[in-house]
């Protein structure tokens, strides 16, 4: 924070009347590609994320600077004339939040001077975009004294990404980042936004994120194709059952109805969505009774389903996960959209250094790429930082 404050002084002149904010990144422990199929997800907020030092302006200007994109300089815009601009790059995300707040009828009389810094690895799929959206939403709420709770800020931030930036994301990322709670995971029903916190106290274990460092060029087109396949399968199932989503089905009900899905690939995609949703609910029950081994086994089953039925893994993710299994991970799976990005593993503390070394070696032997490893803690959601308080 000291470095960010010093940068703020360099950019904006002094450190009078500044405030500090933080929004985490997120990782999903289990429940992948279930959000748009009416199912459950089980994410946690991380202790890496987006930091911001900000000062209220007495006019309607946003003056935005990112230490991660220093070459872009200050992006200056007026709150009354916000439009998406390619040249503004990263700044379209905070601009989109301001735009969406006003679209929802909230009056923004005061702008901001902001310096952002994010320590979420670029391209890792840990949701740096939603992190900058939520930290901006909290800042704008504060300086304009807006009567908005966090769930509505989450929805506004998702709308910013969907409608202003043009990325058709679900609500999980923003929800986990806005509503995160230290040492808890969130079981979220993505259809109803019903949610429950589950304690995740890892005493002898740690969460290890491994980044494949493979760019995910196929993700957007593959993601849209998977959604279409699930929608076709659902439409055919609805001819035989009054369901609203694939998440409404149990495994037994799906197997009884699956003959109605005409295309074999569509059937595989739907099978993953149904089984993964049930796996997620069961995993939370295992965690509640402290059965971390059973939780890890369900994580492994999740990866196998994503590999075989949903087909969104690929050589890099499979290699990392299989090496993690071989090196004693309690559970390991891909997390995020797939085709690159990260894995999440539960590893015994005493084994971590050996785990990183051996998994990294096996991964490089197969792929030629270097994996990066991050031991992460579970943090609170987006918030203003009180002086002397750590994340």
From TrEMBL:
EC number(s) per entry: 2.7.1.6
All residue ranges annotated as the GHMP kinase N-terminal domain in the record: 92-180
Any one Gene Ontology BP term: galactose metabolic process
Keyword vocabulary terms for this entry: ATP-binding, Carbohydrate metabolism, Cytoplasm, Galactose metabolism, Kinase, Magnesium, Metal-binding, Nucleotide-binding, Transferase
Annotated residues for binding of ATP: 66, 123-129
Residues at which Mg(2+) binds: 129, 161
Sequence ranges assigned to domain Galactokinase N-terminal in this UniProt record: 6-56
Superkingdom: Bacteria
GO molecular function, one term: magnesium ion binding
Main location: cytoplasm
Active-site residues per Swiss-Prot or TrEMBL entry: 173
Family classification: Belongs to the GHMP kinase family. GalK subfamily.
Protein name listed in UniProt: Galactokinase
Organism name: Pontibacillus yanchengensis
């Amino acid at each position: 924070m000291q470095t960010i404050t010093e940068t703020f002084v360099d950019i904006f002149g002094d450190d009078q009347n500044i405030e500090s904010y933080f929004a985490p990144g997120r990782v999903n422990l289990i429940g992948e590609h279930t959000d748009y199929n009416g199912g459950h997800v089980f994410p946690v907020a991380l202790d890496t994320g987006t930091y911001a030092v900000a000062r209220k302006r007495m006019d309607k200007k946003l003056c935005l600077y990112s230490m991660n994109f220093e070459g872009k300089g200050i992006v200056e815009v007026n709150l009354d004339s916000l439009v998406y601009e390619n040249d503004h790059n990263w700044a379209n995300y905070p601009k989109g939040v301001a735009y969406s707040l006003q679209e929802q009828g909230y009056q923004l009389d005061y702008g901001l001077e902001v310096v952002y810094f994010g320590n979420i690895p670029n391209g890792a799929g840990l949701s740096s975009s939603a992190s900058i959206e939520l930290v901006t939403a909290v800042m704008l709420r504060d300086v304009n004294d807006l009567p908005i709770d966090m769930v509505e800020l989450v929805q506004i931030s998702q709308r910013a990404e969907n409608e202003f930036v043009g990325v058709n994301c679900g609500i999980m990322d923003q929800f986990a980042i806005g509503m995160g709670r230290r040492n808890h995971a969130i079981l979220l029903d993505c259809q109803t936004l019903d949610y429950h916190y589950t304690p995740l106290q890892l005493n002898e274990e740690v969460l290890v994120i491994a980044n494949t460092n493979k760019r995910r060029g196929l993700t957007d087109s593959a993601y849209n194709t998977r959604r279409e396949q699930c929608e076709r399968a659902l439409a055919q199932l609805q001819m035989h059952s009054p369901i609203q989503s694939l998440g409404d089905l149990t495994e037994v009900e799906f197997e009884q109805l699956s003959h109605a899905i005409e295309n074999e690939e569509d059937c595989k995609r739907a099978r993953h969505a149904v089984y993964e949703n049930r796996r997620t609910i069961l995993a939370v029950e295992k965690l509640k009774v402290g059965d971390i081994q059973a939780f890890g086994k369900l994580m492994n089953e999740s990866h196998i389903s994503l590999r075989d039925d949903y087909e969104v893994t690929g050589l890099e993710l499979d290699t990392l996960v299989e090496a993690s299994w071989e090196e004693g991970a309690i559970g390991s799976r891909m997390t995020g959209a797939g085709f690159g990005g990260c894995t999440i593993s539960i590893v015994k503390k005493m084994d971590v250094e050996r785990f990183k070394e051996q998994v990294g070696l096996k991964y490089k032997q197969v792929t030629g790429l270097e994996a990066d490893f991050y031991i992460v803690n579970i943090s609170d959601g987006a918030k203003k930082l009180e002086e002397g308080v750590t994340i």
